[in-house]
Every structure is written in structure tokens, then in C-alpha cells.
Amino acid sequence: MENYQLSSRQIASLKALHRTLRDRKEADRVKAVVLLGSGWSVSTVAEAIMLDANTVRSYFDKYVHGGEEELLESNYAGRQLMLTTKQEKALSRHLDVNEIHVILDNASYCKSKWLQKRLTGSKIILHYLHGYSPNLNVIERLWKFFKKRILYNKYYEKFDDFVSACKGFSLQKKSSAMNYVLYTVAGRAIGFALEQPLHVVTLTCSASGNLK
């Protein structure tokens, strides 16, 4: 049987840390370690926090090996830039301004310490959408439109047929509906989140959660 015992001092320190956290995912990590260290079983903790058992174990292992700092550390690194050299130069010219305002949701990788450190002293200013506001996140509107066109009342006999339909959706020319999703709603989200005039606004939305 695995040993997940923690000292009363460790549990007290984790509880104090938990009270300072505002990010729900970070708080759940600390909560999982506290509950395991207090004698709860892995399966009970997983059910209570609605996580899988392996994730719960990994949180405890992180804490044991690196303490509170490693427990809260986000290892999300994104992926390599996919722009061509020509596209990079065009983007650089477009962003030749004093400030760049970026609209983000509240995903943990958007608030990671690594990201905050990388942007310190840069001209990029981050603005986070209000919590539980999918109507302000442009990609959510796109998914709604996507599901209406590709999923609702549809039957695909083969998986390859479904893949082809998805690819066809992504390659289609922008219809008036798509324009509404990608532009009209974007303007509302920007205005609501910032409530101030901007020089440049960059919306970063991605299905895989990658910053672009």
C-alpha cells in the first residue's frame, strides 16, 4: 500500500497556501495533496475533486520531490512557431507599436510563472476575460458554429468521413456566419474586457490551448 502520510506541519503549510490561491486548478492540486496526506485514499480524493487517480498521485509526487513550488509549477510549453519567415516579418511590421494588448482566458498556462517572467519588461500587456464568460471567448462561438455544421443530426459511417468533414469546415471560405463569429463577437469581447481604446489587440484562441 502506498504511503501518503504528511506531517501536521506540512499539512498546515499547505492549507495556508490553499487559502491564498485564486486559480482553481492550483487550489485543487494543493487540496489533493492535503487530503492524501490526511489519510484519504487515492480513489476517494480523485472522486471528490473529479480528477483521475494518476493525476492525484502525480500531484503528491511533485510535492514530495519539489515542495510547494514544484506542485504549483506548470510545465506547459506550447509548441514550435509554425509561421514562415515571410509571415514572421509581416507580423513584426504589423506589431511595430508601443503596446500590444493580448486577450486571454483564465487557463493555467495563460497565467504561468514562466509566461509572466518572459513578458516582464516587454510591450505585451495581458488582459484576462472574466471567469465563466464563454460568450466573450471567440473560439467558443466558433466551436458552436462548428458543431452545428458538423456534429448536430449528422451520422458518419466511417471515422475518415468525420475527419474529412472537419477538414472541409476548416478550409471553407468565410461565410457571413463565420465573419460574424470571428469579427463581430471579437469586437464585443475586446471592448468588454478592456474598456479602453487600443493601439493593437491580438486575440489568441486555439483548440489545443497553444498560445500563438
Structure characterization notes:
It is a single chain. This protein has 212 residues and is mainly alpha-helical. The chain folds into 2 domains: 8-72; 85-203, no CATH class. The chain is built from 9 helices and 3 strands. It has a 3-stranded parallel β-sheet, covered by helices on one side. Strand 1 (100-104), helix 6 and strand 2 form a beta-alpha-beta unit. Helix 2 (24-37) packs across helix 4, helix 3 (42-49) packs across helix 4 (53-72) and helix 7 (138-150) packs antiparallel against helix 9. It is extended. Residues 183-212 have low confidence and may be disordered.
Question: Layout of SSEs?
Answer:
Layout: H1 8-20, H2 24-37, H3 42-49, H4 53-72, H5 85-94, E1 100-104, H6 113-119, E2 124-128, H7 138-150, H8 159-171, H9 176-194, E3 201-203
Parallel strand pairs: 1-2, 1-3
Instruction: Give the rounded overall mean pLDDT.
Output: 77
The percent range for helix content is 55-70%
Order of helices and strands: HHHHHEHEHHHE
What is the 3D shape? extended
Question: Between the first and last Cα atoms, what is the distance in angstroms?
Answer: 44 Å
Count of runs of 4 or more consecutive helical residues:
9
Multimeric organization: single chain
**Structural class by secondary-structure content:** mainly alpha
Largest beta-sheet details: 3 strands, parallel
Spatial arrangement of strands, main beta sheet: 2-1-3
Query: What percentage of amino acids are in beta strands?
Result: 5-15%
**Total domains:** 2
Tally of strands: 3
Unreliable stretches, pLDDT < 50, 5 or more residues?
183-212
Radius of gyration from the CA trace?
A: 22 Å
